[in-house]
Design brief:
Order of helices and strands: EEEEEEEEEEEEEE
Largest sheet: 10 strands, antiparallel
Strand content: over 45%
Strand order of the largest sheet: 5-8-9-10-11-12-13-14-6-7
Radius of gyration: 22 Å
Length: 152
């Protein structure tokens, strides 16, 4: 005679991981580019928006930043596009959670009043600092740092 002693429950039975996430021991292990309890949030979402205020510093010279608009890259799930309204080409960056990397890329600047133009290469990194309420990024080749107030 057999007596039922216990039932082994599957901790993943009621969990629905989406966006190619997989359940492991009762929680979702999200695919690259996704986060959240069920992998329902794209990592880039926290970066997207219009940043109206900020400050920058280059070579010990501080300045006020104009509006920055961060949008999603049209083809890459984990990429964002940072348009500062100054550089000729918006900056692209790859998101990894609360951090991002700005890979080497060609860019330039054209002064609208004098038509002086300069081409250069940029690269760097950035992150979101929730305690300070800032998105911060640094361009390694210039030593410049930009701090943008997070949108509400």
């Amino acid at each position: 005679m057999l007596l039922p002693c216990c039932t082994i429950e599957d901790p993943c039975e009621d969990l629905k991981c989406i966006n190619q996430g997989r359940c492991r021991d009762g929680s979702c292990d999200c695919a690259a580019g996704f986060e959240g309890d069920n992998c329902e949030i794209r990592e880039i979402e926290k970066y997207l928006g219009t940043y109206l205020r900020g400050q920058g510093s280059c070579n010990n010279v501080d300045f006020v930043l104009g509006t920055h608009v961060i949008t999603e890259h049209p083809f890459e799930n984990r990429m964002i596009v940072i348009d500062d309204g100054v550089l000729d080409v918006p900056i692209t960056a790859e998101v990894d959670g609360w951090n991002f990397v700005i890979p080497r890329q060609q860019n330039g600047y054209t002064d609208p009043q004098t038509n002086f133009s300069e081409d250069f290469e940029i690269w760097g990194q950035g992150w979101i600092d929730l305690q300070a309420g800032l998105l911060i990024y640094k361009l390694d080749n210039t030593g410049c740092e930009y701090q943008l107030e997070l949108p509400n």
